[in-house]
Amino acid sequence: QELDFSSMQVHLAYAVIGKKAPRADGYRIPRIDKRQNERWRDEIKAAMLMMLHTNSRIAAIRALDYHFGDLVSKGELLADVPPQGDIVAHLVSAHPLLLEHKQLYSKAGKHHMFLESRITERVMLEMNAQGIVALPIHDSFLVIHRYAEQLEQCMQHAFETITGVEYGGKVKRKIVDVPCANPDPRMSEFWGTFDVWREAAGP
User: Fold this and answer.
1) Residues 106-141, buried b or exposed e (16+ Cβ, 10 A)?
2) Which SS3 state, helix, strand or coil, does residue 149 take?
3) pTM of the entire structure?
């Protein structure tokens, strides 16, 4: 399974100021109804990330304008998406504390990414201590199905250990099929030898 920290960057921004995010979904805008939030989620997420990684409102809107232009060229931008400035304004109204504490328009996203890397490392080390391999993919992890519960507990614990704040988001789960048709027998031999080395090395 793949387990994913939902809206990780927003939760990290709040953790930096010692707060738990007000909503599990950091990209949900209360002023917009649920259906539109779901429909425009990718565009809202892009806007929030640009607000976290740029140094001014103008820079964030310009970056979002460039992103929207790219989507238009690919025919992927929804026709009813609000103007860039409106999305940015909605997000500021949804997260006034982040603006007040200079998490928006200050390139704070770089520090959030550093914290995310520390959380990722912590998860991998904690899982490895249990003899379980968790493969990281940005802010998500791949693990064998039967270890999903242990992984989610490690993810929650790692977030709180590194930031000092409880993770208030949702850990999303997705079944991932990894095809392995006609595996090379040499790989099976290698991993068998690797297991012998690992046992000989001890914890």
Assistant:
1) bebbeebbebbeebbebbbebbeeeebebeeeebbb
2) helix
3) 0.85
